[in-house]
Amino acid sequence: MSRHARPPTALSLVAWCLVWELIGRAGLSTIIPPISRVLTAGMSIVATEKFVAAVVVSLRSFGLGMALALVVGVLVGTLMARVEGVARILGVWVNVFSSAPVSALVPILMAVIGIGETTVVVAVFLFAVFVIVLDVEVGVRQADRSLVEMARAFGARPHQVYTKVLFLSALPELLAGVRLGAIRGVKGVVIGQLLVAIIGVGELFELYAQHYLMEEFWALVLVVFAFAFAVSEAVAYLERRVEYYARAR
Amino acid sequence: MTVTIEAIVEVREIGMTYDTGVEALRDVTLTFPRGCLSTVLGPSGCGKTTLLKIIGGLIRPSTGEVRVAGRRVDGPGPERAFVFQDFALLPWANVLRNVAFGLELRGVPRDQRHTVARRSIAEVGLLGFEASYPHQLSGGMRQRVGLARALAVDAEIILMDEPFSSVDEQTRRKFQEDLLLLLRDRQKTVLFVTHSIEEAVYLSDRIVLLSPRPGSVARIIQPSIERARRSPDEIRRDKNYLDAVDEIWQILKRYVA
Prior knowledge:
heterodimer; A: 82% helix; B: alpha/beta; Rossmann fold; 6-stranded mixed sheet; 10 strands
């Protein structure tokens, strides 16, 4: 495959920026300012206290919700894979909720829990947990039975089987679940905060949209997109590190 | 003068029926002498791996019991080490960690277990590969890691489940020769499961033949082949060797007919 036949991916990014700039300058729509102005607006808002506070709140909700989703996801997924009855009872529910539009539930959450950070944390948790449960279940189920047998043959006690064999054997699937869960978690933060509309980046989105501050709005969009992408890539990096043994299992 | 070799493994009326209803073993009673390499030979599906796993404590038999050094077997134990047919190496650990795994599970401190592991690695001829990972090794090398792991825990009894069946013929013959050399200076009892008649006769003087499912002891063959100071090729042309192979084949032939 000849190297010069493939244009670098950065080229398409540059092309899109050019298109955006031209459309913005042409004034085709008031909603789309030129990207150059978006970027300058972006640089000015990033420094403001309001923005930093919004980011801190959002990250806190994201982190808390993801941590909960991870703990519950690993526990439930492992239970479903190792204890037969559990999979039969919970399986249907997990499958239904992992593909359901959970965002529809956020207004109900708001009504029950109230307007505030807790709703957002619960939203993140609900968005992320089901895909983690599914992937952990698959990972633990596929965990090499002969490795478990080998560990037992050499005298492993039950907790050693989990920590020294099962967990590591399921790591590729677990990381894949975490990556998908994290992406959904970011959605959870944004949607939760949009609907709650008084905290975090959701509040800022509302603010900018209401006051028609489109440059600031798009700048924030870029920031959130970049964050989601960065989180996804970070987990993907970890996945690549364990890939070498995923195939060898 | 008769030298009585004590039986270190006693199998008494072992029967095994799986949940699926398959009766793998029926009324197996035999003993294995200490310090010798015994083979368990039989056609596919005769239950020889099942028997080995019962002795290893990995499967609980439906009936009967196994005693090792007089004590009843109730699960795996430090006096028995297992070598698996599909190697069963941890793919995320390098050779050194894999070989030391048995010791790691026992809580042996790292420096100590790595020293022991290095010795075993050298004994199986993998010196220099301590930092390699299983996916970087050939099948033959991986099985040597499995063997090193079993040697590292210094168990009195080594249970080998068709350990050489996943490698090619040349490597297999080399392994058979190396195994005999390795065991020569050690007082280990080895129970070796195989479906190869030649392998069984080459390696051991006590060959237990199992009948097809449900497996039970069909015959015990004890050829006396002079092995000391003879090359592998000479042994494979020895009359007793060839007679034993033929005798076993005649018995097994009826089962696959």
